[in-house]
Amino acid sequence: MIALLTGGAGVVGKALCRELLARGVCVRVLTLPGDSLAKSLPAEVDVRYGDVTNLDSMQEAFRGVDIVYHLAAILLSTKPGAFEHVNTEGTRNVLKACRIHGVRRFLYVSSISVTYPVLTPYGESKKKGEALVRASGMDWTIVRPTLVIGDGGGVEFNMFRDYVKKFPVYFMPGGGKSLKRPVRSVDLVKGIAVAGLKEEAVGKTYALAGSTVMTMAEMAKCVLQEAGMHHVMVSLPWWISKRLAVLKSWIGGERVSAEQALAGFLYDAAPSIENAETDLDYHPGSPFQP
Q1: Closest Cα partner for 213 from 274, 137, 139, 269?
Q2: Residue 9 in contact with residue 38, Cβ under 8 Å?
Q3: Residue 88 — φ and ψ, nearest 5°?
Q4: 37 is in which domain, residue-wise?
Q5: Judging by DSSP bridges, how do beta strands 2-6 and 26-31 pair with one another?
Q6: What is the pLDDT of residue 236?
Q7: Residues 6+ apart with CB under 8 A from 201
Q8: Domain-embedded: residue 225
Q9: Structurally, how many domains does the chain consist of?
Q10: Is residue 229 a part of any domain in this protein?
Q11: What are residue 183's DSSP bridge partners?
Q12: What is the pLDDT of residue 111?
């Protein structure tokens, strides 16, 4: 079996390469031309170069492929239309390439943010991607990771961690009451790998989260305890949080919009993982357990 990973040179993609190789799968990666991260991929990986926003550039990578794991996406951007261009239209192009080359199995890595009551442009782009996948006629599976922690990945958690550690007194929008179910990178990768290989997963959508539900405030305490810090949290009402543009700079900087920076504080992301436990033998740990 040959598996093609779009965006496979990233942190999660690289770990997924190792997981699939350990399961006896031949792995091919599609990554952007000139991507220096490709040099750190396992030697057994067949690296191809192309851009998901350019159908012609990636055609060759799909020849002879049995399954596509579609990870390629952008998570942070303040450029108008960027999420739609890469995440939605890029997914459309990848599905077209699959149809052209007869690829039947498709695993789409979405995001738990598609379940938020009000979507950010990122969440909207991933939700549209999900709709394209479901309408593709392929044997599809969709996975929705929650907040990813570990192995250098988890851009959103890293921003949160750095923010909490940066100031002796830090503001917590909404008092940090929103519920999260953060997932260890190692558990996420195994869940993605199995979801793409099991027949039971065809036509299904799975939340891939960790074992423990906790508030944002509790996560902040764990971050500070691990760092040996004793910073003080100050609860900030939402109406003030939304008006303090400075929070955007403190939390995410120029890479992220104020809307996206605050969305994680506002909405719960603590889904049930019962279906994944049953179908995928998915039994994750907690990122904050010793």
Answers
A1: 269
A2: yes
A3: -90, -55
A4: 2-147+182-210+270-280
A5: parallel
A6: 84
A7: 141, 194, 195, 279, 280
A8: no
A9: 1
A10: no
A11: 148
A12: 96
Per-residue pLDDT of the chain (290 residues; tens, 9 = 90+): 999 999 988 889 999 999 999 999 999 999 998 888 888 899 999 999 999 999 999 999 999 999 999 999 998 887 889 999 999 999 999 999 999 999 999 999 999 999 999 898 999 999 999 999 999 999 999 999 999 998 766 788 888 898 899 889 988 888 999 999 999 999 999 999 999 999 999 999 999 999 999 999 999 999 999 999 999 999 988 777 666 655 655 565 556 666 777 788 889 999 999 999 999 999 999 888 75
Q: How many alpha carbons lie under 13 Å from residue 32 in its C-beta half-sphere?
A: 12
CA distance 148 to 137: 30
Q: What is the CATH number of the domain that holds 92?
A: 3.40.50.720
DSSP 152: T
d(CA 251, CA 186): 25
Q: Is residue 258 part of a domain?
A: no
Coil, strand, or helix at residue 183?
Answer: strand
Locus of tokens 């792995």: 27
CA distance linking residue 15 with residue 283, whole number of Å:
18
Asked if 14 contacts 40 with a C-beta cutoff of 8 angstroms, the reply is yes
Structural element, H or E, at residue 204: strand 204-208
Distance, in Å, from the CA atom of 209 to the CA atom of 27, rounded to the nearest integer, reads 25
The answer to the question of residue 163 being in a domain is no
Which has the closest alpha carbon to 141: 101, 98, 197?
A: 197
Rounded Cα gap, residues 70 and 91, in angstroms = 8
Structure tokens at 182: 């953060």
In three-state secondary structure terms, 89 is helix
- CA nearest 130: which of 119, 169, 159? 119
What does the block give as tokens for 212? 């423990």
